[in-house]
Amino acid sequence: MKEYKPFDENLRPKIPYPYLMAVEWGGTIGMLPLNTKITKINCKGLKPPYILLANHASFIDFPIVVKAIFPRRVNWLISIEEFNGREWLMRGIGGIYKRKFTSDLTNVRHILWLLKKKKRIVVIYPEARFSLAGINEKLDGSYGKLVKTAKCPVVTLIAHGNFLNSPQWNKHPKRKVPISAEMKQIVTAEEALSLTAEEIQQRIENAFSYDEYQWQYENKIKISSKARANNIHRILYQCPVCGKEFCTDSKDTEIWCENCGARWMMDEYGRLHRTDGGDDVFSHVPDWYRWEREQVRKQVRDGLYNFEDTVRVEELVNCKDAGFIPLGEVRFTHDMNGFTLHGTLDDGTTFDFNRSVISMYSCHIEYNFKGRGDAIDLATKGKTYFIFPLTARNVLTKIHFAEEEMHNLLKEQEQSK
User: In CATH, what class is 18-218?
Assistant: First the structure.
């Protein structure tokens, strides 16, 4: 493969360019409803530096932050693939690169430099991926340690309506949903010094508990879109009636099982109703999603989980002149040994890659990534690969569950020794 200049990971983040802030503010006006409501709690007198932790469900999460902290400017922790083809812009708005689910002290040093030396606001999406079912995803357990090192306040921004507006499994068309958010200081500067890292981590974990479908139902948020359930089978991949995996499909307002014929309709308030004459099983989408996780958990603990497929591998070489480079097709395995790839690339070289289960508490998945197919993002320090399964159908959500449950199992085994 041609040699390309790698992404400069040591380049310090920039203080956002003033002229780009006008673009951010203008985009916020254009993307958010005029009646977007930000409620601030315990924020009187709050000044930088501080860490702002926000939940993550769609692209409109960024203008929500801009509106919440207006007119202040922030630096953002951003996944490295978002720099591709627009590195100047991502750096210009104060972006700090991050390779998903890697332990990289370089970007930690960048964050601490911004907080301690430059007295900045640093925005982090601690779930490290989009919410798939409108509920909180697992967090990295190291944020308490980061706060203790930074010795600065922690502010959370939990938004509602962002997921319902454009869930990752059906980003278009966007739905007309009111947006609201609660901005709350959960750790003061004094508490950052007095509390333990474990106590701070627990406050963060407690703050990140939300359920978009419950919020919709309780607040009677009506979504009349004819496509409100289109592609929801991407997360609801296992039929709760017959138990078969990867047999569901969906279109418009319906989801059904192609194996047993069970069928549901999603109403305007996000509730599921059985329409084939059988008894209701799940009316609440997150309950179905959590049930699937439990099935994967059982497979993992019974030693039955294993996934294999042929995959296409693309490497994010750099973000300026190369971007993603196709490497070829290899064999992919996911089991208790982790993510393993082996095969011969298009250039004739042998490709061997492994990320152990214990090294990743979760994984980043993308449904139909940029129109190129379902993808799993696997990275190491200095390398980012996107892996595209070629024959398996709708497996990403299960792989995401399995990685987390295998990691949980290994952590439990470590602690019991």
Answer: alpha beta
Of 212, 215, 180, nearest to 32 (Cα)?
180
pLDDT at 1 over 70: no
Assigned token pair, 319: 């973000």
- Taking the whole predicted model, whether its pTM rises above 0.70 is answered as yes
The predicted-structure confidence for 376-386, as pLDDT tens digits, reads as follows: 999 998 899 99
Secondary structure of the chain in HEC code, one letter for each residue: CCCCCCCCCCCCCCCCCHHHHHHHHHHHHHHCCCCCEEEEECCCCCCCCEEEEECCCCCCHHHHHHHHHCCCCCEEEEEHHHHCCCHHHHHHCCEEEECCCCCCHHHHHHHHHHHHHCCCEEEECCCCCCCCCCECCCCCCCHHHHHHHHCCCEEEEEEECHHHHCCCCCCCCCCCCCCEEEEEEEECHHHHHHCCHHHHHHHHHHHCCCEHHHHHHHCCCCCCCCCCCCCHHHCCCECCCCCCECCEEEECCEEEECCCCCEEEECCCCEEEECCCCCCCCCEHHHHHHHHHHHHHHHHHCCCCCEEEEEEEEEEEECCCCEEEEEEEEEEEEECCEEEEEEECCCCCEEEEEECHHHCCCCEEECCHHHCCCEEEEEECCEEEEEEECCCCCCHHHHHHHHHHHHHHHHHHHHHC
pLDDT per residue as tens digits for the range 242-293 = 999 999 999 999 999 999 999 999 999 999 999 999 988 999 999 999 999 9
Cα gap 249→326, rounded to integer Å: 30
Q: Which residues touch 94 (CB under 8 Å, ≥6 apart)?
A: 13, 14, 15, 16, 73, 74, 75, 76, 120
pLDDT of 388 reads 98
What dotted CATH number matches 307-416? 2.30.29.30
The pLDDT of 403-412, averaged and rounded, is: 97
Identify which of 29-43, 164-178, 367-381 has the greatest average pLDDT: 367-381
Cα 323 from Cα 267, distance rounded (Å): 42
Which residue ranges make up each domain of the chain? 18-218, 232-301, 307-416
Instruction: Please check whether the two domains, 18-218 and 307-416, share a CATH topology.
Output: no
Tell me: the pLDDT tens digits for 50-92?
A: 999 999 998 889 999 999 998 899 999 999 999 999 999 999 9
